[in-house]
Amino acid sequence: MASxxxxxxxxxxxxxxxxALKGVDLSIEEGEIFALLGPNGAGKTTMISIICGIARxxxxxxxxxxxxxxxxxxxARDAIGLVPQELSTDQFERVIxxxxxxxxxxxxxRNPAHIEKVLRDLSLWDKRNAxxxxxxxxxxxxxxxxxxxxxxxxxxxxxxxxxxxxxxxxRDMWKLIGELRQTGxxxxxxxxxxEEAEEMADRVGVINRGELMLVEDKTALMKKxxxxxxxxxxxxxxxxxxxxxxxxxxxxxxxxxxIEYIFDTxxxxxxxxxxxxxxxxxxxxxxxxxxxQSSLEDIFVSLVHQxxxx
Length: 310
Ligand SMILES: Nc1ncnc2c1ncn2[C@@H]1O[C@H](COP(=O)(O)OP(=O)(O)OP(=O)(O)O)[C@@H](O)[C@H]1O
Description:
Blueprint: E1 3-13, E2 19-29, E3 33-37, H1 44-51, E4 59-64, E5 67-68, H2 73-78, E6 80-83, H3 95-105, H4 112-121, H5 137-149, E7 155-159, H6 167-182, E8 186-191, H7 194-200, E9 203-208, E10 211-217, H8 218-225, E11 227-234, E12 251-253, E13 258-264, H9 272-281, E14 286-293, H10 296-309
Parallel strand pairs: 3-8, 3-9, 6-7, 7-8
Antiparallel strand pairs: 1-2, 1-4, 4-5, 9-10, 11-13, 11-14, 12-13
The structure holds adenosine-5'-triphosphate (ATP).
Pfam families: ABC_tran
Keywords: ATP-binding, Nucleotide-binding, Transport
InterPro entries: AAA+_ATPase (IPR003593), ABC_transporter-like_ATP-bd (IPR003439), ABC_transporter-like_CS (IPR017871), ABC_transporter_ATP-binding (IPR050763), P-loop_NTPase (IPR027417)
């Protein structure tokens, strides 16, 4: 596949001296859904803002659909639809007017048929004459997407499309984004949620402290991220891990009151049931069991360790 966005050595130093991006290289392929995953303050919004021409890079280069974002700003910007984190639109305006107006901002000739298609695709056609303030939160978000698609961009950026929305709305949004990709538009979304990247993306980039730590196919990444921690709360304290448990690589926590076992949820055999059986055989009783998904934070820590080790 051909790349539609080419980022090389991208850096951003804010006036405060803070380095928000430290030399990012990335290619986005035409037609893919790319998720940029990272914790608060990682640099996701900074990166999108630069690509969309809202912020200026300190160094490096970005090409969008073959146009350099600085030398050929207009060509690059025309290819992009941006759905920002914050809902920003006139509350008193009618849906169809605000979407039509957005197209006009790009200097494109009127095209009522396209606006109608966008509104229909986003299930907003019935609401075209409603004022924005009369819409539900989910519909308002869809209006923002309609605005971003009004000038027929080849690339759609969604900055945290589901931040602060309930589970149901999140699922609707995922479905919608899946449908949008069928229209051929390349989609780049930022998110904090591993689950979101898992559900949507073809490829995932993990960014932390201004550095792109990895870019991988989703399936490969999920294998790495699909770790869980099982905590077994023991009935009685242990002084050390019994040798009979050596094959599970468990650690003793909580003053000897807990056994912790990290397992791969994607593996055919997680080792959980055999571990519990072995505990039973050894007469080691337990009061409670719980499992927790590795947090994004844990994953970053382990990624950093892996990088250092390499
Ligand atoms: N105008 C600014 N001046 C100085 N520092 C800034 C400015 N804008 C952002 N930063 C800093 O740059 C870093 C990256 O911010 P950015 O908004 O890109 O992160 P993000 O990954 O989008 O985070 P979030 O998930 O919270 O939106 C943060 O530490 C932020 O405080």
